[in-house]
Each structure stands twice: as C-alpha cells, then as structure tokens.
Specification:
Blueprint: H1 2-20, H2 25-32, H3 41-60, H4 82-98, H5 102-108, H6 114-133
Helix pairs in contact: 1-5, 2-4, 5-6
C-alpha cells in the first residue's frame, strides 16, 4: 500500500509540474528575470503549493504517527551555518542557470530532452561529490 501511495503522489506531483509549466526552463528563467521579461505566473504555482502544504501539515500533525511509518521524521537542527547558506546559494545559482530544480527535472525526463538528462546527471554527481568531500573535513575518530 505504501508503494501505491508513493506512486500516486509522484503522478500527482509530476502532472502538476507539467501543467504549471515548471518543466519549461524558459518559463522558469523568465520568472527570475524581474528586470526583463518577467513572468510572475510561477509565483501562483508556488503559492498554491504553499497553501496545499500548509493544509497537509496541519492535518498530518493531528495524527500520532504517519500512515506508513513508525514516527514522524522531523529535523532538529535550527542553526544557520555556512553549509546551509552555501548550499542554498549553489542551489539557487544552479536553478537560475539551468531553469530546472531537481523536483521539476525528474518529470521533465519524460520530454526526452538531452539537457534534462545532463542536468540530472550533474545533480547526481553533486550528491556523490558531497559524500566524498564532506568526510575529508571531518576529524577522524580515535582508534
């Protein structure tokens, strides 16, 4: 049942991304171009997502546990550090350059455009590099 709900959620998300135009890098880049050919329509997409997420969280937090899991997985960190700021900046720069964020690029794979596959390959490479580079800055445990 958990997989069916995951599949259904993915289909709803992907359909929404496609219908809203967020799979089109030109539309996304025009949203960021406030001094030029600004297209504010994606603000309505994000606003609608915020409304739905707010309602969903309010309903979820009324439950003692998630439907398909032992407990709610809630982040505990609240620090704003250089990793958070730097990562956010890199994400924003990448989104501004490519016109894709990973969430929109996954359904955009269905368009068959090679640029989408290249973008996602770069995202996966970034995830891998983070796992390789991050331990290098960590102090070693005493053996």
């Amino acid at each position: 049942m958990k997989l069916i709900f995951a599949l259904f959620s993915g289909i709803v998300f992907g359909t929404g991304i496609a219908l809203s135009g967020m799979m089109d890098p030109a539309k996304v880049l025009n949203f960021f171009d406030v001094a030029g050919s600004w297209d504010p329509s994606l603000a309505f997409v994000m606003g609608g997502a915020l409304v739905v997420a707010t309602i969903g969280y309010r309903l979820a937090w009324r439950r003692n546990a998630p439907l398909f899991g032992g407990r709610f997985q809630v982040p505990t960190g609240t620090d704003i550090d250089m990793k958070l700021v730097g990562g956010s900046a890199l994400f924003g720069i990448g989104w501004g350059i490519a016109g894709f964020c990973p969430g929109a690029a996954i359904p955009a794979l269905g368009t068959g455009r090679w640029e989408v596959a290249l973008f996602l390959a770069a995202v996966i490479l970034g995830f891998w590099l983070r796992r390789v580079v991050a331990p290098l800055g960590q102090p070693r445990a005493a053996s």
